[in-house]
Amino acid sequence: MDVVKVVGKYLNTPVGTVCYNTDKVLTTVLDKENVEGFASIILRLATKSGISMSQVQTLLSYQWLEHLSMYANQAHANTNFALIFLQGLNKGLQKNTFLTGNHLTIADVAAYHSIYPMMERLSILEQESLVHVCRWIKHLQSKPKATKSVPNWAIEPLPKQLYPHELKDVDLTKPVLYFPQPFSFPGYPVILYL
């Protein structure tokens, strides 16, 4: 319910009263019309605010939003389920910058606000295993309007950074952070555990 309100603020679009109906389905009234379901509400808010998406982006957004609505509550309640849920998200982001491709959509904004608390609860090792989710979060955090309702997620400091010319003097008894060049995402490290 809170995510819907945050998305409404992001889009600068009134959300109305958001509640659960007798069938326990998230419901609101937009333009004097009853709108039911998390994904339907978010996409209707996007349309109402004037955001245009291609048919493919709309369908992919709907799928991601439905996935969030089905599993996010359970993931918030259970840390083990949260890790499995986030691993699925990580796999989905493996070949895309954002959820629906290479452009930010409303699905990314809603997903960010939904999964942010899950990521905070994970250990550093678990966070490091979700490389694509971490990259996606950093991309979103570079757009302050999309993430302003929560503080930026801070990744704990990693071991000393090394560049190629420094590898000959490396102590291989502990983890090494190495920046290979060229790399598909400049500035994103590869951690070598030797």
Automatic annotation (TrEMBL):
Q: Which Gene3D superfamilies match?
A: 1.20.1050.10
Residue ranges of domain GST C-terminal in the record: 34-161
**A GO cellular component entry from the record:** aminoacyl-tRNA synthetase multienzyme complex
The residues the entry assigns to the signal sequence are none
Q: Report the record's Gene Ontology biological process terms.
A: positive regulation of DNA damage response, signal transduction by p53 class mediator
Q: Which PROSITE patterns match?
A: GST_CTER (PS50405)
InterPro entries cross-referenced by the UniProt entry: Arc1-like_N (IPR053836), EEF1E1 (IPR042450), Glutathione-S-Trfase_C-like (IPR010987), Glutathione-S-Trfase_C_sf (IPR036282)
Q: PANTHER family, per this entry?
A: EUKARYOTIC TRANSLATION ELONGATION FACTOR 1 EPSILON-1
Put simply, this protein is called Jg6710 protein
Source species of the chain: Pararge aegeria aegeria
